[in-house]
Specification:
single chain, about 425 residues, alpha+beta, FAD/NAD(P)-binding domain, 3 domains, eight-stranded mixed β-sheet, six-stranded mixed β-sheet
């Protein structure tokens, strides 16, 4: 591959968490990214991130940005989807101001070697067979790849599609309730949520109406314990699901909202921003180190985005007809002995920062899996007898992970997914 006539390998458009996470991952893989932005401003508001996203922060070695951004860990959220039967949903959530998180992530990326430049307009991308050409403020540059992290604008990743036309009217409430649980409320036309952080609370009213929804709604005031006098209107933003028709095209990859913008009902936007940044970086690294695997890497990324979108649709559709999110599957009966599935097939997967084809377990739904929670299931299978007592397997995993509850959760997942079977 011809090297670019610049000191950078990849150009990233955007200043949000997806752009910063991609820059963090690329620098860890030994690549030099240049971040371009028309403005340094990121949309404000308090975000609730599921604790299941913490492993992604750890994979990026970016736990420190949560502390720098003033994030707080909060137990559960109050569910008023059925106002007559409110309930407390279990689970941990990270409450953090969106702009502070993005700023902290960009700072960390710069500390690790990424570069940053503000431009008046984002340049036109010219894709060639082995590089990207752009002109930055009159200077022609070549890069190995380009990342679109421009959010819903998807500047380099159109055409886009969308599902629905819901928008969110955003309010800032001061003073906020420190570390208060988030609340979600179903309304006659739409829904609303409140998420608190030390100092203030973000409230959003979501609907398909063209006029601004007022916070003076008596149900909102009573449920969220707020008044219109304490609310400052911040504006409105899209809240429908949106996705790029071509999240990867040539050497251009869309990440975060540019690839797939979630309906906020799912609460998974930042989690997808991180996972798409990690996956896109693996694709770029594959282009660099193993060009013969380029087609497989591109296919893997398209499937990753499509699977994320389909899972999101199922989640939101469930919410529309039920009063709670999809329940966690009940624990499987514990057998005395188990054996691993013999459904092992070649599959594309992420391995050591690259996309490679290797063996994996094929699940009943057709998906393939090799690693779960950092455990190589195939390596585990090959190191054990054909049939093993579940107690012995639990002890082995506990010794390897240092966490009994984690070992049990892994085994339950394997039983539900039929990676482990009763002989």
């Amino acid at each position: 591959m011809a090297r670019p006539r610049t000191s950078y390998d990849v150009v990233i458009a955007g200043t949000g968490i997806a752009a910063a996470a991609t820059a963090l991952r690329l620098t860890a893989l030994g690549l030099k990214p240049l971040m371009l932005a028309r403005t340094c401003r990121v949309s404000t508001g308090v975000e609730a991130i599921p604790a299941t996203a913490l492993p992604l922060f750890k994979e990026l070695h970016a736990e420190s940005i949560l502390e720098e951004a003033g994030a707080t860990l909060v137990q559960g959220f109050e569910n008023y989807w059925d106002p007559e039967q409110p309930r407390m949903q279990s689970g941990d959530w990270i409450h953090v101001e969106r702009d502070r998180l993005a700023t902290a992530a960009v700072r960390e990326a710069l500390r690790r070697g990424a570069s940053f430049r503000v431009v008046q307009t984002l340049p036109v991308v010219l894709c060639e067979s082995e590089c990207i050409r752009i002109c930055v403020e009159g200077t022609p540059l070549r890069f190995d790849a380009v990342i679109d992290a421009t959010g819903r604008a998807a500047v380099w990743s159109r055409p886009i599609r969308r599902r629905g036309n819901q928008v969110a009217d955003l309010y800032d409430i001061v003073p906020g309730q420190k570390s208060a649980s988030a609340k979600i409320l179903r309304l006659s036309a739409g829904w609303a949520y409140s998420i608190g952080s030390p100092g203030h609370t973000s409230v959003a009213i979501l609907s398909s109406e063209s006029r601004r929804r007022q916070i003076s709604d008596s149900l909102i005031e009573a449920t969220f314990c707020i008044s219109e006098s304490s609310a400052h209107y911040c504006g409105r933003r899209p809240a429908f699901t949106q996705w790029s028709d071509n999240p990867i095209n040539g050497r251009r990859i869309a990440v975060g909202d540019a690839a797939l913008a979630y309906n906020p009902l799912a609460g998974q936007g930042i989690r997808f921003a991180l996972s798409s940044a990690i996956t896109a970086s693996s694709v770029i690294n594959t282009w660099q180190t193993a060009p013969s695997h380029a087609t497989a890497a591109e296919r893997f990324y398209r499937a990753f985005v499509a699977r994320s979108r389909d899972d999101h649709f199922r989640f939101v559709d469930h919410w529309q007809t039920h009063s709670s999110p999809p329940s966690i599957e009940k624990a499987m009966p514990v057998p005395e002995a188990v054996t691993f599935s013999d459904q092992i097939v070649p599959a594309e997967m992420q391995m050591n920062g690259e996309i490679r084809t290797d063996l994996a377990f094929r699940l009943p739904d057709g998906e393939c899996v090799r690693w779960v929670g950092g455990t190589d299931l195939l390596e585990l299978r090959n190191s054990l007898p054909a049939t093993i007592r579940l107690a012995d397997l639990t002890a082995r995993l506990t010794a390897a992970t240092g966490d009994l509850s984690r070992a049990r959760a892994l085994l339950q997942w394997c039983l539900r997914s039929q990676v482990l079977r009763i002989p």
